[in-house]
Specification:
This protein is mainly beta. Helices cover 13% and strands 39% of the residues. The strands form three sheets. Strands 1, 2, 5, 6 and 7 form a five-stranded antiparallel β-sheet that branches. Strand 9 and strand 10 form a beta hairpin.
């Protein structure tokens, strides 16, 4: 970094499911990269020592995945960005709108990438291993007339058909889009007696 100035980042879009291989190819080509990742717990799958996926009951292995199909690449002054587009797994570089017919690569400030990195390190994008435990609804029973208070079906009234331990409910909505007794699945905790 000349004179303590942080260099900006180029943003490259990857091909589908190619984030890891594109990052590896960029590093091998001598580029400094950052690929934002999040942690996710697999359900019913553990990763064996040899890398195979093994079915299991309950919570599975914790894995890291790319947050989105973009890789940040440190820009070097005077370096041509065209070779980046030739690297396996890279679909294109994001570019600014053309000026006089020339579209230069879009540059992202170092502070933005640093903030994304901090959020990833802090686990802001990580998926939780399991939903928080909620006690089952005992105040409602199949056959009750209920109103949905949240979500896309807020305000709808219907008959409760099923209520499970995981907090899901199945309703028959009285009338929706001109049809009567329309089945719908909703969160049981968004329901109140009508």
């Amino acid at each position: 970094m000349p004179d303590g100035v942080a260099l900006p980042w180029l943003v490259a879009m990857t091909r589908a499911q190619s984030e890891d291989s594109a990052e590896l190819a960029l590093i091998r080509a001598g580029y400094v990269t950052y690929l934002a990742r999040f942690k996710r717990q697999l359900r019913g799958v553990k990763i064996a020592a040899d890398g195979r996926r093994v079915r299991t009951r309950g919570a599975g292995a914790m894995v890291e995945r790319a947050l989105w199909p973009y890789i940040f690449i440190r820009d070097a002054p005077g370096q041509d960005s065209y070779p980046i587009t030739l690297i396996a797994g890279i679909a294109k570089l994001l570019r600014k709108p053309p000026i006089d017919g020339v579209a230069s690569p879009a540059l992202l400030d170092d502070a933005v990438v640093a903030q994304i990195r901090q959020h990833c390190i802090g686990g802001k994008f990580d998926e939780l291993a399991a939903a928080p435990e909620r006690p089952p609804r005992r105040d409602l029973a199949p056959g009750d007339l209920v109103r949905v208070n949240a979500g896309d079906l807020a305000g709808m009234i219907g008959e409760l058909v099923m209520l499970d331990q995981a907090g899901r409910a199945r309703l028959l909505i009285a009338e929706l889009l001109g049809r009567s007794n329309v089945p719908a699945n909703v969160d049981a905790f968004s329901l109140v007696r009508a």
